[in-house]
Amino acid sequence: MRDVIVLMKDIHKVYPDGVYALRGVDFELRNGEIHGLLGENGAGKTTLMRILYGQIKPTSGEIFIKGNKVRFNRPRDAIKYGIGMVFQHFALVHAFNALENIALGMEPSKGGLLNLKEVEDRVRELMERTGLKVDLKVPISRLSVGMRQRVEILKLLYRKVDVLILDEPTSVLSPIEVKELFRTLSKLREKGKTIVLVTHKLREALSICDRITVLRRGKKVATVKAREVGPEDLAKMMVGREVLFRVGKLKGRTGKEVLKVSNLWVKGDLGTYAVKGLSFTVRGGEIFGIAGVEGNGQSELVEALFGLRKVERGSITFKGEDITNLSVKEIRDRGISLIPEDRLGRGLIADFTLTENAILGMHYKPPFSKGFRLNLEESKSFARDLIRKYEITALSEDVPVKFLSGGNQQRLIVARELSRGPTLLIAFQPTMGLDVSATEFVRNGLLRMKSEGRAVLLISSDLEEVVQLSDRMAVMYEGKFMGLGRPEEFSTEEIGLMMGGLELHEVKSGNS
Amino acid sequence: MNYLILASLLIGTLRTSIPLIIGAIGEIFNERAGITNIGIEGVMLFGAFIAVYGTWLAQNPFIGLLWALLSGIAWGLIFGAISTHLRGDQIVAGIGINVFAMGFTEMMIPLIWGTYGYSESVNRLPPLFQLYGERISYFLPLTVLLAVLSSIVLYRTKWGLRLRSCGENPLAADAAGISVYKVRYLTSVFSSILFSLAGAYMGIDWNDSFVKEMTGGRGFIALALVIFANWKPLLALAGGLLFGFFDALQFRIGAALGVGVPPQVPQMIPYIATILFLLAIGRVRGPSAAGKPFVKE
Amino acid sequence: MRLSQAIHKLRYLASLSRIAQSLLAIVMGFLAGGIMLWASGYNPLKSYEIMFIGDSESGVQGAFGGYLALSNTLREAAFLTLTGLAVAVSFLAGMFNIGVEGAMYIGAFAAFLVGYFISLPLNPFTNLFHVCLALLGSIVAGAFWSYIPAVMKVKRGAHEVVTTIMLNYVAILTTKMIVLRAFLPKTGIVPGGILTPPISLSARVAPIPLPSRAELTLGFPLAIVVTLITYFLLKATTLGYEIRAVGLNPRAAEYGGVNVGKALIYSMVLSGAISGIAGACDVLFVEYRFNSLFSPGYGFDGIAVALIGRLDPIGTALAALFIAAIHMGARSLQPALGMPKELAMAIEGLIIIFTALPEALNMLISKFKGVKVRK
Questions:
Q1: pTM for the complete prediction?
Q2: Do A104 and B288 touch (CB under 8 A)?
Q3: N or C: more exposed end of chain A, with fewer CB within 10 A?
Q4: A113 to chain B: which residues are within 8 Å by CB?
Q5: Does residue C65 lie in a domain region?
Q6: Which residues span the domain enclosing C321?
Q7: DSSP letter at C204?
Q8: Cβ of A107 under 8 Å from any chain B Cβ?
């Protein structure tokens, strides 16, 4: 039995607005293990680790490091005790290079003048020992996500951290990068480091972790040895009931071609091409899914389809009409709806009421608008309708949407976009960050669209979601499709390889 | 071209660019740390007033300078609090500071000196040296030194690195163990000291008394200068000289243009020049987190 | 879920109380002003009393102490309402428009030109027609002046705070220059500014007489009308919806099909139009001529008014009345106590600073109510 190096006892966390995030959680970490912290979105796992890392203070409870009771005020305190954390979306300054990011906060200096050479030497040594290689002099903005993660890990190792907490590290990686990461973690374990892996992906937890602690709604359900359980056991612990991951795929009548994308080239923010010659079609009555890790051109594709980004080359045809580079309004008017990623950033106006958000995108047309006047009565009754039909929990239609929960906000967006009866619905990361019931709700909504004969374009980094819902699918990598076909035609490994950059023919012929 | 006028123009440029450059460098530090203070004009005006008042009371311009320094620290702490703990709207607060300074300084003139619109004359700071009857202030070499040192501090010291991280990604800075609030307080104090001293320069070096609204929009021109300089102190030095040139031009060109042109035309030059500069530069991207309050939980 | 819903409702109500936030800012501003007064050797309470209801000893009326004071206050309120609305409309779209002062001057000058160069026989119909024509001129001119920085921002990304301030100076200097050049030989220079000759009789509107030889300028009812129109525009039209949407979340607005650039430009054009009307009020209803320095800073006060009024049209009108009271009241301090009237501006500045801190109020409230915990 290994020694216990971290002990968190009876941790409670209540937020000022009343949210009870953690209810008496105990957590025990043993030296040299890889410990998985598992739970669905909102279970409290990140909160618990942020407390351990000193970023948040617990409302009550104690923390012991190697037997000593500690009280952390800032992450700096935790680092002194050898605890470090890598956040899901990283904590890197994009304008700086890797070296500057690693040195930040611990810069060696002579009389104030930076001495980055010293840092460089030490980091190179670390890179040798762990096999984590990164270009140190390039700004972070130009590094791939996998590289950025390495910088984050190097940051921790540079600070002589013994316990590494990784928050959802695989959500932004392709399957190949995930394998590399896990290899790195094993190596670190060999060198005597202890690792906490915070994740909602139970298969990954099973594959790499020694022990797994499951949290549900702020409470600890159990701590188990990974060898002794299977995925169904963990799923039941996470959700509390039998989880049906099988979604009945209805055989729909696929109709005519609704959307045709031909040789599409779209530039990204940095001036380079993010979408490189993409071609595909979507037919009425089918769900076409695009799988792929975030950041491979999906955002740019969606923006181009919706009129928010310029198409440099190629064309987009909708119901036979060329809609390339039309404005958002014109595209919406033709019957295309969008459930955007980032609901509060792009889908809703936080300070607007439910009513005002309900008509966003249709506010300039009858019945909500007559000439230049807004029809407030119509808008309100429409909003009330949506609340009822889509079971949105809200005090009234006059409440600003910022007071709604994430799940209800997404319900509103889905309600709004679906109620327009679009010919094509684009759903971009529609279930990100939602709990199980909201996720089911959204997915059922997509299936209903399909059964009504509408076309659905689903773009998601959740591979399981794409595979289960799509009639046809493609895997996107660096702006191109690595493979396109029916989900049944691919095995999970093959999809994984495609997400990592191999093209279908390479995958099928066994080259990897 | 008359060499005397040219020399006068050159010296005038140097003189008028000083408050612009100092103001711009102060705000460069602010925005690099994630603060947007458009109250430069107000702090400058207040600094000019308090410097004249202090000088008048003690009959010593150095006392006035000290008062301006203290005033800068006070304003810096106030704005620092607004940008951090109080999570206030920095733009609105900046506007409030400007309005307050205008009202307060104008109100105090009759209360102190019994006159309206201008104060009594006071002793000025001693000049570095005199040239053709024109004074060259100590502020001139000090401003150049400020620009150079600022550049070094910002890019080559650890404090500069930390400051810049607060303005680019305060969450990352916080994760690295840096106290974003502390950095922003210190930066706000430092920049407000600079704004105040720029005003003091106008009151007890360039001029010898306080005149109502004497900053004449220079605080706002300094804002434009920050963008023009792409948030780099050395470019602020260069740009400030350019803007100062146009500012100096308005005082001297009247004679050159002749009687036909009304005096308002040269007076408008600095303002129109600023607009043209902004148009020429186009869209710019400053530090990513400038102006947004940093909230942790 | 019930209890946390209730907490959310409380929080919603607390931050909904923008009125409370503004009131608190005003109170804090007066407190700080009181400290200033006390430090200068004046009695704050007495000073404030004089400001609002006057002082029979020195014969001043303060802001509301008599018909004369009332008419002055209402006239001031008219101007402040208009400039406040102008600021509010642009701020709502997210445009920090500091250029209302300049647009007002340009609008005033345009109204003057229409009033001066056209002369119609005097009867109620031509009077109405001429005034409307002049107002139209001021609207177009003011709208144009604010259109310029709007386009510069949308097309070239030029920061509107700087461009609008620069254009203020250009507007004031240009109108002064034209007056000097074209009209000076005919009139003189007055401490308040350089005056043009008067406009035609057909373009003037006399004030409404009140008791005690006081009079109410037409600007006041006009300001009320403009307030109601602005309210209607913002809450009940598509354009108002789009302006507010763009100001709150331009990204989401874009996704909703709104043309962000157009919304920004429209908001500034509206703002300029209202600024123009403000300027026209001075020319057509008060001075009957163009005064190169007619504004004691109405455009800038408009910012204070709009912020205190929380950018809501009705709130702005109420805030305008309040600030007008402070201004007029402060004028009484001079003869009564020897305190300069600029005190008003200083207090205004403090109030603006306090309105910048709504979050601070929210944080105080949530600390006050304590934390209720879900079972």
A1: 0.83
A2: no
A3: N
A4: 156-157
A5: yes
A6: 58-338
A7: -
A8: yes
